[in-house]
Amino acid sequence: MGQNTITVTDSDFSQAIASETPTLVDFWAEWCGPCKMMDGPLDELAAENSGKLSVAKLNVDENPSTMGAYHVMSIPTLIVFQDGEEKRRLVGARSKGQLQTELAEFLS
User: Fold this and answer.
1) What is the pLDDT along the chain (108 residues), one digit of tens a residue?
2) 32 is catalytic
3) Among residues 25, 35, 56, 99, which one is catalytic?
4) Catalytic-labelled residue, pool 17, 32, 42, 67
5) What are 68-77's contacts with CB under 8 Å, separation 24+?
6) Number of domains in the chain
7) What's the DSSP call for residue 99?
8) Does residue 85 lie within any of the structural domains?
9) Is position 93 annotated as part of the catalytic site?
10) How far, in Å, CA of 15 to CA of 5, rounded?
């Protein structure tokens, strides 16, 4: 887990995504290799875009209700929320550069 990301759970998820500031939620699991590869890029993205984008991580094994509620079928799945609404969904591992390109509208 990176020092610039936050951990969310089923109990505080709604509060975490309610912000006007976009929140990127990483749905992941400990056993998922591609998920672990995302840790560094996501932490860097969070550090470089502080104030513009929050990055949260939700362990799907420990928080199955939220995973089901948002129909997450494979991991890693990254969902950007703003004001509690889903704005963008990315499925599969990405490099930092790919993340910056695909999330550019939220980083400006």
Assistant:
1) 568 899 999 999 999 999 999 999 999 999 999 999 999 999 999 999 999 999 999 999 999 999 999 999 999 999 999 999 999 999 999 999 999 999 999 998
2) yes
3) 35
4) 32
5) 70/27, 72/27, 75/27, 75/28, 75/29, 75/32, 75/34, 75/35, 76/26, 76/27, 76/28, 76/32, 76/34, 76/35, 76/38, 77/26, 77/27
6) 1
7) H
8) yes
9) no
10) 16
User: What type of residue is 69?
Assistant: A
The CATH code of the domain that includes 10 is 3.40.30.10
Residue 12 inside a domain? The answer is: yes
- Integer Cα distance of 31 and 35 in angstroms: 8
Half-sphere exposure of 92 (CA within 13 A, CB side): 3
Task: Decide if 1 is inside a domain.
Answer: no
CB atoms within 10 A of CB 39: 15
Q: Is residue 57 part of a domain?
A: yes
State residue 75's pLDDT score.
98
Domain of residue 83, residue span: 6-107
